[in-house]
């Protein structure tokens, strides 16, 4: 298949592109390199430096018969969305609508969308959260993810565009940017390696469902063969405190820094935990990498990419 990976120079998108290429698919990458890097791009991929909101995006559809779009291009910084909600919406909503219009025009078969379980559910009413959990996003970023899911439903009903929305929990692993709440693992790794003092927000007892990039990549591969349109959680179903993540990383690097706490951050969830039952049933997917193993692999990566 010819697969267009938007955001394919970024953390998650580049790892997915590598897997698609390994499985024999032709991958076309569209990325404006705002948060992605050329070094992440597989040499076997066709690369276009372009924005999903721009008119040049259509050139890709004219030159390549795209079968599937894997859509990871986005503004992903939760705190940026608080400060610049208009810009956040332009990228995440308007940019995606531009992509969907082209998908319909050029008869794309399916779109796989990187959504967010934690950001969409907000402070959960129960744990773990299934796909039918009430949607209470606490940030403009979460609102845009939910809006795009609704647009995908619209395009499916009216134009027959199939989709799989993957609601990620907190993804971590090699190539992750040390930036923002979602990048806490990379932030801790980078700072500790440099013997800089990382700051733990609040008590550090906030929890996240950390899912390793390799497991996320596998979910995106499984989604290629999914025959129905659906929204599905991609998480481990295991709740881990931020303080535990810090301690495991610090221990890996020989306890180089002290444990220092700062003020809680506005908009951060206290707890986040996803139910992956539907993913196991519908995608035949399940996570394989534990938090201990995944953090060790991630630390090793950052250790050799100083």
Walkthrough of the structure:
- The protein is of the alpha/beta class and 306 residues long.
- It folds into 2 domains: 207 residues, NAD(P)-binding Rossmann-like Domain (Rossmann fold, 3-Layer(aba) Sandwich), CATH 3.40.50.720; 75 residues, Alpha-Beta Complex (UDP-galactose 4-epimerase, domain 1).
- It has 11 helices and 13 strands.
- A 7-stranded parallel beta sheet has the order 3-2-1-4-5-6-11, sandwiched between helices. It has a two-stranded parallel ribbon with strand order 7-10.
- Strand 1, helix 1 and strand 2 form a beta-alpha-beta unit.
- Helix 9 crosses helix 11.
- The longest helix is centred in the first third of the chain and has 21 residues.
- The two termini are 36 Å apart.
- 46% of the residues are buried.
Q: Indicate the multimeric state.
A: single chain
Helix fraction bin = 40-55%
Enumerate the spans where pLDDT stays under 50 for 5 or more consecutive residues: none
Radius of gyration: 19 Å
The CATH architecture classification of the largest domain is 3-Layer(aba) Sandwich
Q: Any idea of the CATH topology of the largest domain?
A: Rossmann fold
Structural class: alpha/beta
Rough shape?
globular
